[in-house]
Amino acid sequence: MWRYFVDATVDVIEKEGIENVTIRKVADLAGYTSSTVYNYFQELSHLVFFAAMRFTKNYIDDLPRYIDKGSNTIEKWLYTWECFCKHSFDKPEIYAVIFVNNLGSVPEDLLEHYYKTYRSDLIGLPEPIQSIILEHAFSRRSALYVQQAVDEGLIEGKDVAFISETTMLIWQGMLTTVLNQRRNVTTKEAARQTLDYVYESVMKVIPTDKRKEINVQFK
């Protein structure tokens, strides 16, 4: 039943857009009453969150290919940003629901529930990548991965939190700007600008003598 309502919500999003999802529409499409939907979901935002996650599969499938382009942790991490920007700015409303909007609940709990149900989404992904995806808080996802760069001597431990938080705020700010139409930029331009700002933020904390080890070619 839980999956049935999530799939119905996905249908509404595909036909009418995520901003037009209502409990009544989902219930009608599934052939049940609104009260039945509330037996499985505390509020609409939870249902929309779970449905939005169904639209991230292309990103998850793409991620290993981007990571493989890097030869060290910083390069790999920057390429994960390229992948994330590509997909998140292509579907900004979807990614805002997952990473920005107020869910009225603990996001980690919702994510754990989601992947218990849709565990197949993770099949074939290397274990380190699974751990990143299963960590919902964006800055913690970054810190979890970037920490390995400390062992490689590319950054200092004190800089992990800084670049994790800073790059997350850059992305959130640009995504919000796009959604609110506060700048006259295309989603492709916004994705590239975000990626450029992320790159510059990271390079600032890398010791000068180590910067030559970072060679990324964004498309």
- Report, as a whole number of angstroms, the end-to-end distance: 42 Å
Number of helices: 12
Largest β sheet strand count, sense and barrel closure: none
Given as residue ranges, the uncertain stretches (5+ residues, pLDDT < 50) are none
Question: Averaging pLDDT over every residue, what do you get?
Answer: 86
Please give the radius of gyration in angstroms: 19 Å
The overall strand count is 0
- Beta fraction: under 5%
Q: Based on helices, strands and strand pairing, what is the structural class?
A: mainly alpha
- Helices and strands, in N-to-C order? HHHHHHHHHHHH
- Give the overall silhouette: elongated
* Count of the domains: 2
What does this structure look like?
This protein has 219 residues and is an all-alpha fold. It has 2 domains: 2-41, Arc Repressor Mutant, subunit A (Orthogonal Bundle), CATH 1.10.10; 55-213. It has helices at residues 2-16, 23-30, 34-38, 44-53, 57-67, 73-90, 92-99, 107-117, 127-134, 138-151, 160-179, 187-205. The termini are far apart. The model has no long low-confidence stretch (mean pLDDT 86). This is TetR family transcriptional regulator.
Ordered list of secondary-structure elements with their pairings:
Blueprint: H1 2-16, H2 23-30, H3 34-38, H4 44-53, H5 57-67, H6 73-90, H7 92-99, H8 107-117, H9 127-134, H10 138-151, H11 160-179, H12 187-205
